[in-house]
What we know:
Elements: E1 2-5, H1 7-14, H2 20-28, E2 34-37, H3 39-51, H4 55-66, E3 69-70, H5 75-88, H6 92-103, E4 108-111, H7 117-120, E5 124-126
Parallel strand pairs: 1-2, 1-4, 2-3, 4-5
Amino acid sequence: MDVYIDACIAIYLVEEHPEHAARIEARLRGSTVRIAYSPLVKMECLVLPMRQKRMELIERFHDFFSLNQPLSITDAVFSQATELRAQHGLKTPDALHLATALHYGCAALWTNDDRLNKVAGSLAVNVLAFA
């Protein structure tokens, strides 16, 4: 089962956030979840480490992404994101994340943002609200 992750989830895992990483890892433990991400997630994760020239952290992100499932943001994904943004007033990144998860049939979109629930329904899961 593919689960699309928002950038915040990747950041918590890779940077080993003291509270959040353990909660996310608990959801992954013993499951058949395959983490999926888009180039947008990768970009959002790498901006700050690159700005700060934190090479070790950049390498940890590259290692993390190499172990997980990349999903392309195609023209069809952009079209769906445009519709989501127009109909629901989502910000562009949120619309792209949701459209990517929908386009590829992901079982869930893991985030820590409850705003996506209004549009995505049960697809968007705030994984920090449980555990």
